[in-house]
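Re-running the complex after MR caught last week's input typo. The corrected sequence lines follow. Everything else is unchanged.
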Amino acid sequence: MNVIFLRLKLQICLIVAMVLSGGLFASYCYAQEEKFFEIKAKKFSYTPHKIIVNKGDKVTLRLVSEDVTHGLYIDGYGLETKAHPGQDGSITFVAGKTGKFTFRCSVTCGEFHPYMVGNLIVGPNYRFYVYVLMILAIGVGSGVVIFRKSKE
Ligand SMILES: [Cu+2]
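Corrected-run output:
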């Protein structure tokens, strides 16, 4: 094994590492989607009462009250907003945790207030894994091609 060959191998490793890290970063950026939901709050329910997003999504919830002042508190995320009649509330956050989270009214609005709940469902981000697999395939593939060429 000569010095030139060793240097080539090192360069190949460097290129592959650069492709992989750049690809991972790009995957992370492209896998993130912006999602917007308008939630109508009325004694004693939310419409819609089920919000489904993917991990990493940038989520904006606008809370609109159709009668009295209502709140929306997301368990597990510890986020809250309030909507007064004619004055909407809003929360923007990155859904960093997967799972099923309950959101509930945080303003006592009447006798059935404790039952005013909904769910935030944050699923795993499959798009991200698909991108990562593609990048890995490209990285390994190009590495193999360069490696073979350098051997000739
Ligand atoms: Cu309430």
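None of the earlier attempt is carried over here. The chain has a mean pLDDT of 89. The CA atoms of residues 23 and 41 lie 42 Å apart.
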